[in-house]
Amino acid sequence: MHPVMTGRRVLLIIGGGIAAYKSLDLIRQLRKQGASVVPVLTRAAEEFITPLSVSALAAEKVYRDLFDLTDEAGMGHIELSRVADLLIVAPATAHMMARMAGGHADDLASTLLMATDKRVLIAPSMNVRMWQHPATQRNLATLRDDGVLVVGPNEGEMACGEFGPGRMAEVPEIIAAIGAAFGAGPLAGKHIIVTSGSTHELIDPVRYIANRSSGTQGTALAVALRDMGARTTFVTGPARVAPPDGVTVVRVKTAREMQEAVTNALPANAAIFAAAVADWRVEHEATEKMKKREGEVLHLTFAENPDILAGVARMAEGRPALVVGFAAETTDVLAQAQAKRARKGCDWIVANDVSPETDIMGGTENAVHLVTGDSVETWPRMAKAAVARRLATRIFAHLCTG
Ligand code: CTP
C-alpha cells in the first residue's frame, strides 16, 4: 500500500496497442497500492486484450461503448469522466494522441478525455517512426501545452523488430508518474516557480540578442522539485533541452514576458531564478527587417530589462518564503555572488564559474557554491541533475523543516 494511492480512483483508458497487455499488470499493481481502477477499453484495445480479463483484474465493470452509456440511467459519460481522481491512457497510441490533440469526441474514450475536469496522464506506445513523425511530435507538444502529463516512451527493442523510442513505460514508472501526479513526496502541497533558459531580445523581426544558456540546470531543477512532489511552474525562455513533463510549462521569449509569467504564477512558496535573462533589450525594436547600407555603421541603443529576481525578492506583500538566484560569473565568483545576493535582496545565491574552460555553460556538469546568508558551501563538481536534487533537498529542508 502507498499512502498517496490509498482510496484513489483511477480511470484507465486502454488503447489499441501491443502494450495493452502491460495495462493488465498496471491494474493489478494499482489495486495492490490501494487504488481502485475504472477500466475503459477502446474498440482497438479489444483486439489485444479481452474485456473479461480487464474486468476480472479490476473487479469493476468495463466501459466500452459511448451509446450504451448515454442510454444508461445510472452513469452518463460526463459523470464517468469525473468519478476518478486521475485519467490514464495506457497505451496511448499515435492515433489516440492525434484525436486527443484534435479534441475529437467520437467514441467513449475520447469523449471522456474531452469531458473530464481531472488531470490526464498518457503513456505513449508506438513504432519508433510513428513516435518520431512530426505529426506525433506536434500532437505531443499540443497535449503538453494542454497540461497533459506524459510518462515515457522508453527506448528499446520493439515488438515490430525496430529499435528506438516508442516502447510504453514500464508499470513501476507509470505508478511513479501517478504518484507524482497525486502530489506524493515531501514537497507535496508546495508551489515552486522555476525560471529557466535564455531570453531573446528582438532587434527586428528576424534578429535577436541571446546568450548560451541551454536550460539544462533549470530543467533539472524543475524535475527534482516535481519528483519531490512540488507543484512546479516552469517559466522558460528559449532553451536547447525540452521542458519536463508533470510541471506547468509557461513558454516566453523576452525578459518582459518572463516577468509577466512569473507575476501571474504567484503566489508561491519558493521561486528559483535559473534563467539567464538578458539585462538589456534594444530600445526601439524595428518592425521591419533592417537593411544594411553601404558604409553605414549600425548603432543600437539599449534599455534596461526589469530585474525579475530583484522584483520578487523585494515584494512587500506575498513574497515567496524562499527566493533563490543564480550567479554565473567568470571572475571573483564568491565575492560577486555575495554582492549579488545583497543587491538583489534574495535569500540564497547559487554561484558558478562559467569561464569557457569550465565547460559548464551548455555542458552536463556544474560546480556551484551555495551562498546562504553569511555562510558559503562549496559543492564538488557533479552532474547538473545531482546539483538539482541536492538543491531541491535544501529547499525542502528550508520550507518544511526550518
Ligand atoms: N535575473 C533576473 N532578471 C534579470 C536579470 C537577472 O531575474 N533581468 C536573475 C537571474 O535569473 C539570476 C540572477 O538574476 O538568478 C543573476 O543574474 P545576473 O545576470 O548574473 O545578474 P546581474 O544583476 O545582471 O549581474 P551582472 O552585473 O553580473 O550582469
**Beta-strand percent range:** 15-25%
Would you identify the CATH H-level superfamily of the largest domain? CoaB-like
Structural Rg: 24 Å
Shape: globular
Number of E-state strands: 21
The CATH class of the largest domain? Alpha Beta
> Total domains, how many?
2
**Tally of contiguous helical segments:** 14
- N-to-C CA distance: 30 Å
Describe, in short, the structure shown:
By secondary structure, the protein is of the alpha/beta class. The chain has helices spanning 20-32, 51-58, 66-71, 77-82, 94-102, 108-115, 128-132, 134-145, 171-181, 216-227, 255-265, 308-313, 333-344, 384-401, and strands spanning 9-14, 36-41, 86-92, 119-124, 149-150, 154-157, 163-167, 191-196, 201-204, 207-209, 231-236, 248-251, 270-273, 280-282, 302-304, 322-329, 348-353, 365-366, 368-372, 375-378, 382-383.
Which properties best describe this structure?
single chain; 402 residues; alpha/beta; Rossmann fold; 2 domains; eight-stranded mixed sheet; five-stranded parallel sheet; 14 helices; binds cytidine-5'-triphosphate
Textual characterization of the structure:
- This protein is α/β, with parallel strands linked by helices.
- The protein has two domains: 175 residues, 3-Layer(aba) Sandwich (Rossmann fold), CATH 3.40.50; 210 residues, Rossmann fold.
- It contains 14 helices and 21 strands.
- The strands form six sheets. It has an eight-stranded mixed sheet, sandwiched between helices.
- Helix 1 packs across helix 9, helix 5 packs across helix 8 and helix 10 packs across helix 14.
- The longest helix has 18 residues.
- The relative contact order is 0.09.
- The model has no long low-confidence stretch (mean pLDDT 91).
- The site of cytidine-5'-triphosphate has 15 residues, from helix 12 and strand 16.
